Amino acid sequence: MTATPSREHPQHLADAAGPYFGEFGGRFVAEALVAALDDLTAAWEELKVDPGFLAEMDHLNRTYTGRPSIITEVPRFAEYAGGARVILKREDLNHTGSHKINNVLGQALLTRKVGKKRVIAETGAGQHGVATATAAALLGLECTVYMGEEDVRRQALNVARMRLLGTEVVPVTTGSRTLKDAINEAFRDWVTNVDTTNYIFGTAAGPHPFPAMVRDLQKVIGEEARQQVLDLTGALPDVVCACVGGGSNAIGIFNAFLDDEGVRLVGLEAAGDGVETGRHASSITGGEPGVLHGARTFILQDEDGQTVESHSISAGLDYPGVGPEHSWLASIHRAEYQPVTDAEAMEAFRLLCRTEGIIPAIESAHALAGAIRIGQEAAAAGQPAPTILVNLSGRGDKDVETAAAWFHLLDEDQHDDVPEAAGPEDAAKTGAVDDAPYTATGSVEK
Amino acid sequence: MTETTASPTTVSRTAAAIDAAKARGGAALVGYLPVGFPDVDTSVRAAKTLVSAGAEVIELGFPYSDPGMDGEVIQRATQTALDRGTRTADVLRAVEQVAQTGAAVLVMTYWNPVFRYGVDRFARDLAAAGGAGLITPDLIPDEAAEWIAASDAHGLDRVFLVAPSSTDARLRMTSAACRGFVYAASTMGVTGARTSVDSHARGLVERTRAAGAERVCVGLGVSTGAQAAEIAEYADGVIVGSAFVRTLAREDGDVEAGLRDLGTLGEQLAAGAHRA
After folding, report:
1. What ipTM was assigned to the predicted interfaces of this complex?
2. Matching CATH topology for A19-65+99-210 and A71-96+219-403?
3. CATH architecture of B13-273
4. Which segments of chain B have a pLDDT < 50?
């Protein structure tokens, strides 16, 4: 039976454990899933302090994932951020190319502990699906991944990767055919096959214990980065930036800094065409409290409580909800959440490619755009140049086609194969092959 | 924990309807149809057709954009209802019209539309429309303090679900929180007609009664009179949804034929449930 939820703040913000984060979180699920969620909760409480598990995770991190991931200072990029000092946490260098593997390896080991042999997952951009397919192959688990039909089309490369790894990819044709519908379908599979199947949830959202468990598995990002920045600069960063869809990479890097009052935490939400247009995925900036996918949190909804379809050029951020811990951190003003449009994110994407030789995931480009904005704001206000730590949560291989279309980099006869996520008509005018930073968004002029 | 038991002064309309069916020697037929499918007026006519066929309790589905517990048939129907503009006000209007038949009318909905409308406001308007109460597939008693208070304040039934995986402790807690009946989900899974109702159902009903439930109805997977008769041997009510929706959803779009077929199927299932 579920314990009475504690809605009081924990003594240390970093220790918040669910099922509630303030007024957010909980378990709004079918009764049929409660036993499985209770089992997972109990197993995770045991496992997360089990020396054998910790040793196995440590071994996999060092010999498989590639941890600790390094940090990279990016001075050429930082020139566009008002002269701020910008440091990237390189989760893009992890095996499978993103932070997702941190979470998935832990949940895959947990699957083995609860005695199940099949895993399911949902995926938007495919990063979580690829990570799950990888862990399933590594541990000999049967794996099915649900993916919205629209995302299958946008992320064909990752679909092929998952299939190569022996995973069944099921295109979901209901609703908006994107991540939220893939989650619905995965829940349906789980409620039907819960005796044999564990659901490896991809982000720090969903019913308890997923938000807390995913955070526990991602907080390694912040713990490493906090020490690395201290070693490099002798001080904590002034600002930490991370993109927020469901919010797992952000909660992972924020966690280590939650109780450092002087560190400003900024989550960058996907604003698509702009929050004011209604075509966006900014759940905190442009949403309202509600219940979606098992948790009370900020969601995009209409006045009848029907979920509103989200929009972002980034399939990985194209989600109308957000993890409940983020809703809580926003409500107590410990973290701030800012929208970044497709255009701003793509300009930051281009800048990092051109100035540092790093092609980021478009998700992470939203965090880079936040760093540019915050650095420029500090410069404009005459403040000392801040040190900004940016979580580079993933690499951009999967997004090359989308970016090529946005910047019109392909020859005409190749356009037929390019996803329609291409940018606005004026994107062609942004001078993608011009070395000078373009100023179409007004936000990146040196 | 919210182990609130119903106030003894509250009369459950759903319980009364089930008891009337039991007094005649069988179990009640509980029929589900989503409001707005294929359109609001036809869904009201369809619900009235089921009442005429012998259903004592009607569940009116409140269409929701993310129906994680529904199988394909009901999901497609509710999506159609939403695509055609079905709103909260339509649901309340449908409740009012179907309640006029004298059947106990429950709304079945996911939690967010009620949360968004305002929990107490929804309870007040549902009661004013003549509704008997609410079935909440994604709201477990653990999270239902606000709804328990509102349903007490407005004299509404509240039906929570139990599943084969529910522990005895959860069966006790859920049975105590329910008013009207306890909804036993016969199989681990989503809605949808099945050729055989899982044998888990009988055991689950027995365990739920032992946990203190006065009335237990069985749903998920029932589509034939024979299945209904089998369930009526041990349960207080037989819940049918997808089979009705599929019958109404004729590919040729012939509404009148769909309603006729629905009436025929309703009579078969009522005969089974009533052990006539």
Report:
1. 0.93
2. yes
3. Alpha-Beta Barrel (3.20)
4. 1-9
